[in-house]
């Protein structure tokens, strides 16, 4: 076992499960910890808790059952650093593993509710930026997905909402005395099931998608926006900024000096170009993305706040506060933004991470080429988003 810090010495005396909210806070702070996943290997490889400072390790629960009979559970974790957070699907098998480890004075706690509760966690924070409206950023730590609610003078819009949390947006805005006018997607998502149609059906809001989605087979009637189109929300105006590349129809949404970039620009990289047209079309898409970045986004003032659709593990992006940063800081931090076109294309099309799980089916659902129930929708999107490529 590794040496324990003073903070770890305090935690070893706490036998209570760790709440998903607390784990998310520790991940954002970059705390060093070991996540011990006692699910089967295929479940772990599909999706597990990860982050800065995290050592994610898979040891199946059956080995703890065997170790209990032999009285040597600590041998299973002898090489792991403490503190340990144990996880499983629902929190029961991991609780058993933790009971064995704690009996041997190992600093281990169980994740309350397991991966189910982790997937259900959705955190809202207000963006502290110079903007003429209140902006809430919604963070799903299990996948790094971000959504936004913009509220002004009793009206609101939601950008890139998740279907699984449609009621959350409605309730939060009702608490603020705001009526939802628009539910906006910046593109046809491949990593999560969109909530725009659900919000339209449950409220008086209009679903809004980029006009190019029709060319991808959009199969439901909705309002579309092209470059320069405006949506009025209370006392403010949202303006569509066409930024193709990640997908052909991708757009960003501008509110004064805040730009909601969807999957075009992140805090630690740019959107991957291969999800829509595959490997064969990735280079052409990357050139389109390069043009969007250079001619549309990087032409904006350095003081523009970039509010992305996802985040990764970059420490500078996770240290404190919501996930947003000045364009000038991103320009200095992300090498791809200063690369010449051929270099950018090479970066954007090589060493890509695995595509999001079920991405083709999720796209079909978001175009309404397929209908799924809520449980199936939730299952489809479990796992990392993998829509970004970093430097």
Estimate percent helicity: 25-40%
CATH class bucket of the largest domain: Alpha Beta
- Overall mean pLDDT stands at 92
Instruction: Give the second-level CATH assignment, the architecture of the largest domain.
Output: 4-Layer Sandwich
The shape is globular
Radius of gyration, in Å, reads: 22 Å
InterPro entries: Metallo-B-lactamas (IPR001279), Mito_Persulfide_Diox (IPR051682), POD-like_MBL-fold (IPR044528), Rhodanese-like_dom (IPR001763), Rhodanese-like_dom_sf (IPR036873), RibonucZ/Hydroxyglut_hydro (IPR036866)
Domain Rhodanese: 29-127
Protein name: MBL fold metallo-hydrolase
Biased composition (Basic and acidic residues): 1-13
Give the key terms.
391 residues; alpha/beta; seven-stranded mixed β-sheet; Oxidized Rhodanese, domain 1; Metallo-beta-lactamase, Chain A
Quick gist of this model?
Residues 1-13 have a biased composition (Basic and acidic residues). By secondary structure, the protein is of the alpha/beta class.
């Amino acid at each position: 076992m590794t040496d324990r810090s003073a903070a770890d010495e305090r935690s070893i005396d706490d036998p209570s499960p760790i709440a998903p909210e607390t784990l998310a806070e520790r991940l954002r702070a970059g705390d060093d910890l070991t996540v011990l996943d006692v699910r089967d290997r295929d479940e772990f490889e599909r999706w597990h808790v990860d982050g800065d400072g995290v050592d994610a390790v898979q040891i199946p629960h059956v080995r703890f059952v065997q170790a209990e009979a032999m009285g040597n559970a600590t041998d299973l974790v002898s090489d792991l650093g403490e503190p340990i957070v144990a996880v499983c699907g629902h929190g029961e098998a991991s609780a058993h593993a933790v009971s064995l480890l704690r009996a041997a004075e190992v600093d281990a706690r169980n994740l309350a509710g397991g991966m189910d509760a982790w997937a259900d966690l959705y955190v809202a924070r207000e963006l502290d930026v110079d903007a003429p409206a209140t902006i809430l950023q919604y963070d799903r730590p299990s996948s790094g997905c971000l959504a936004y609610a913009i509220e002004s003078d009793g009206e609101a819009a939601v950008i890139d909402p998740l279907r699984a949390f449609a009621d959350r947006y409605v309730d939060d805005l009702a608490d603020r005395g705001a009526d939802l006018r628009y539910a906006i997607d910046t593109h046809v998502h491949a990593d999560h099931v969109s909530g725009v149609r659900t919000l339209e059906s449950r409220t008086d809001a209009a679903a809004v998608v980029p006009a190019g989605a029709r060319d991808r087979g959009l199969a439901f009637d909705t309002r579309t926006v092209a470059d320069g189109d405006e949506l009025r929300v209370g006392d403010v105006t949202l303006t569509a900024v066409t930024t193709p590349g990640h997908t052909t129809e991708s757009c960003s949404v501008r509110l004064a000096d805040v730009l909601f970039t969807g999957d075009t620009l992140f805090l630690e990289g740019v959107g991957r170009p291969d999800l829509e047209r595959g490997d064969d079309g990735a280079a052409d898409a990357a050139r389109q993305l390069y043009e969007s970045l250079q001619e549309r986004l990087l032409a904006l003032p350095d003081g523009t706040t970039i509010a992305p659709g996802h985040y990764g593990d970059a420490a500078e992006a996770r240290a404190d506060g919501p996930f947003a940063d000045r364009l000038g800081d991103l320009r200095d931090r992300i090498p791809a933004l200063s690369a010449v076109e051929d270099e950018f294309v090479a970066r954007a099309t090589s060493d890509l991470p695995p595509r999001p799980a079920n991405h083709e089916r999720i796209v079909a659902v978001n175009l309404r080429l397929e209908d799924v129930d809520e449980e199936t929708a939730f299952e489809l999107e479990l796992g990392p988003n993998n829509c970004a490529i970093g430097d």
